[in-house]
UniProtKB/TrEMBL annotation:
GO molecular function: DNA binding; DNA-binding transcription factor activity
One Pfam family of this chain: GntR
UniProt domain HTH gntR-type: residue ranges: 19-86
Cited PANTHER family: HTH-TYPE TRANSCRIPTIONAL REPRESSOR NANR (PTHR43537:SF53), TRANSCRIPTIONAL REGULATOR, GNTR FAMILY (PTHR43537)
Domain of life, per lineage: Bacteria
Keywords, comma-separated and alphabetical: DNA-binding, Transcription, Transcription regulation
Protein name: GntR family transcriptional regulator
InterPro entries in alphabetical order: GntR_C (IPR011711), TF_FadR/GntR_C (IPR008920), Tscrpt_reg_HTH_GntR (IPR000524), WH-like_DNA-bd_sf (IPR036388), WH_DNA-bd_sf (IPR036390)
Length: 244
């Protein structure tokens, strides 16, 4: 079941900051993925998106291609585009890549910390906490992703920012697909503590806090092969063992 109907139904206009229509469509779809309004395996029909956004299918196609390069959309010949649905093996690889990227970002962000960007980050944490308190989990997830992207901006490393942006969106897909029922929303206090360490220049503590934060994200995902499989023999392995 798709949730494209939650996107804007009016013709989009390029924003005043020189964004093209391609950029605006891309941002809308990207945000919808981060907010989990577009869950894994959702069909992204070009004709429907063209009607929703009031733009040509060429613009839709370019936006989807851009998202596919960030590995959050799959495009297959004669089958069109769908929101990516990472396998357990792919999920493990994504989380490892994000760990490496986030630690590098944390180190560089501590070196390049400035009051203006710190305030932006703290405002994001406040908004994230408010969203969670109001029960808007999707918005909270998107704001959490924006927090990590903004942190990467403070690191002042463009390739790392681009890489992390893709990983953040892919992680949102993992949460939508694999998150267990024991989610504790631990990121709220962890983001604040991380910012405090960065602002104080304590790089060792900041790296330790980021490591623990990523560990908690990983712990909230059910990546147990026995628990999530399309193989009936795997799903009912306990029955098979009891009959042996």
């Amino acid at each position: 079941m798709t949730k494209l109907n939650k996107l804007s139904n009016t013709k989009i206009q390029a924003k005043a900051n020189n964004q093209t229509q391609d950029d605006v469509v891309y941002c809308h779809i990207f945000d919808a993925i981060l907010e989990q309004r577009l869950p894994p395996s959702t069909k992204l029909n070009e004709e429907s998106l063209s009607e929703i956004f009031g733009v040509s299918r060429t613009i839709i196609r370019r936006s989807l291609l851009r998202l596919s390069l960030e590995q959050v959309v799959d495009i297959k010949p004669n089958r069109g585009a769908t929101v990516s649905a990472p396998t357990i093996e792919e999920a493990t690889q994504i989380l490892k890549a994000r760990e490496i990227a986030e630690l590098a970002v944390t180190e560089l962000a501590t070196d390049n910390c400035n009051p203006q960007q710190m305030q932006v980050l703290r405002n994001l944490v406040t908004s994230e906490n408010e969203a969670i308190a109001n029960g808007d989990v999707g918005k909270g997830i998107r704001l959490s992703g924006e927090f990590h992207i903004e942190l990467a901006k403070m690191a002042k490393n463009a390739p790392l920012l681009h890489f992390l942006r893709s990983l953040v969106s892919q992680t949102s897909l993992l949460i939508a697909q694999y998150e267990g029922s024991n989610n504790s929303n631990c990121s709220q206090d962890e983001h604040t503590n991380l910012l405090n360490a960065i602002e104080s220049g304590d790089k060792v503590k900041a790296l330790d806090l980021m490591g623990h934060h990523l560990m908690h994200i990983r712990a909230n995902l059910n990546l147990n092969d026995d628990a999530t499989s399309s193989d009936l023999h795997v799903v009912f392995s306990n029955v098979i063992r009891s009959r042996a």
